[in-house]
Design goal:
Blueprint: H1 8-63, H2 65-78, H3 80-98, E1 119-124, H4 129-145, E2 150-155, E3 169-172, H5 176-182, H6 188-203, E4 205-210, H7 219-222
Helix pairs in contact: 1-6, 2-3
Length: 224
């Protein structure tokens, strides 16, 4: 067999293209973090105001002796059989809490909800359908070894629908030539950045992997 050598100028041309993808991914990540930070700050401010209002209401309620007395009298009139033992138990519990040697009350904690694994975004731009399919299959093998994240694959391959049965979430972005042919008014690099920024927010992405179209990652590479 004859060894096929790849001309060095192809690597030189691919390097700037890869750098642009990485810059777009970084810019999209920064935009997503800025939007998320602004939303969290707004939500935190709203929650703080609501907490202060509830705290003031609670203090007023605690200081209202007439309210507590009236509530107890109403309960006693409606259901004296059950109210008297309940009031007695409440008084006993309060006395135990005040007693130095009393046992502390136990607080039941609700079981913590299972956390979803983080999402990893794989930017596979410039790969044909065979290469994308091979990469997705390799990614599935990686998850069988260690299912520690949720993969999201971004591709510009127009035949991406053929990969829906592989069990990996596929997000589509038109390739540069197609986009510039139909929408020359908007740069494709800006579209890529905005698309990645939206995916970061929607999937709460924790990591981004740029797939090299000249040498897609192997199973060993993905396990590192």
């Amino acid at each position: 067999m004859h060894e096929v050598k790849i001309p060095s100028h192809r690597v030189v041309l691919d390097a700037p293209e890869r750098a642009r993808w990485e810059l777009a991914a970084m810019a999209g990540r920064m935009r997503s973090l800025e939007v998320r930070l602004a939303e969290e700050q707004e939500n935190a401010e709203t929650a703080r105001k609501e907490r202060d209002r509830e705290r003031k209401r609670l203090e007023r309620l605690r200081q209202s002796e007439s309210y507590r007395l009236g509530l107890g009298l109403v309960s006693l009139v409606k259901d004296p059989v059950h109210t008297v033992p309940r009031l007695t138990r409440a008084v006993v519990r309060r006395m135990r809490r005040r007693r130095p040697g009393g046992r502390p009350s136990e607080v039941r904690r609700a079981p913590a909800a299972a956390q979803r694994p983080p999402a990893h975004l794989y930017v596979a731009i410039g790969l044909d359908i065979a290469a994308v399919r091979e990469f997705v299959l390799t990614l599935r093998q990686r998850l069988l070894v260690s299912p520690d994240h949720r993969p999201v694959v971004v591709t510009d391959c127009p035949s991406f629908a053929l990969l829906r049965d592989l069990g990996v979430l596929i997000e589509y972005l038109p390739d540069r030539a197609t986009w510039e042919r139909h929408r020359p008014d908007k740069p494709w690099d800006d579209v890529l950045t905005q698309r990645l920024s939206r995916l970061y927010r929607d999937h709460e992405t924790a990591r981004t992997v740029i797939v090299d179209r000249a040498q897609p990652p192997t199973l060993a590479d993905l396990l590192r």
